Amino acid sequence: MGQEVRILALDVGEKRIGLAVSDPLGITAQGLAVLTRQDRQADLANLLKVAREYHVIEIVVGLPRHMDGRLGKQAPEILDLAQSLGETLGVAVIPWEERLTSVEAERVLLMADVSRRRRRQVVDKLAAVLILQSYLDHRHRSQ
Fold first, then answer.
1. Using CA atoms, how far apart are residues 64 and 56, in angstroms rounded to an integer?
2. How many domains is the chain partitioned into structurally?
3. Three-state SS for 26?
4. Dihedral-angle region of residue 133 (phi above 0 means left; psi in -120 to 50 means alpha; beta otherwise)
5. Half-sphere exposure at residue 56, Cβ-oriented, CA atoms within 13 angstroms
6. pLDDT tens digits, residue range 78-87?
7. Within a domain: 1
8. Contact predicate 56/36, CB 8 Å
9. Which of 10, 63, 82, 137 is surrounded by the fewest CB atoms within 10 Å?
10. What is the torsional sign of CA 43, 48, 51, 53?
11. 22 in any annotated domain
12. Which CATH number does the domain housing residue 54 bear?
């Protein structure tokens, strides 16, 4: 059997990076982890470790935008981090709309009656899942 390959999604925030991966068929998104941000070099090393472990062939990165469509102030830093990761791995980086994913993740967790403390621990991972699932659904509709 061949090596399983996956798509990795990043929800990069100021303090944490939420991670999600696709199943090997690229149909569903699964929450993976939340990394606490350190410095750029450590963040990149941690992301490389995860990407290599899951044999990532593509990276989808949530691109922050304002409601009027303008890029958010963190967008250049987020894109630079994702591009560095993609170049090191030799894989494509796909910027993907992330507007309201954190809001939606928070809403889902509230509806599930998850405690405030636990929500803080998983909201970034759930946001990464929502970003990746949106991308995967788009890919399948476009085929």
1. 23
2. 1
3. coil
4. alpha
5. 29
6. 899 989 999 9
7. no
8. no
9. 137
10. negative
11. yes
12. 3.30.420.140
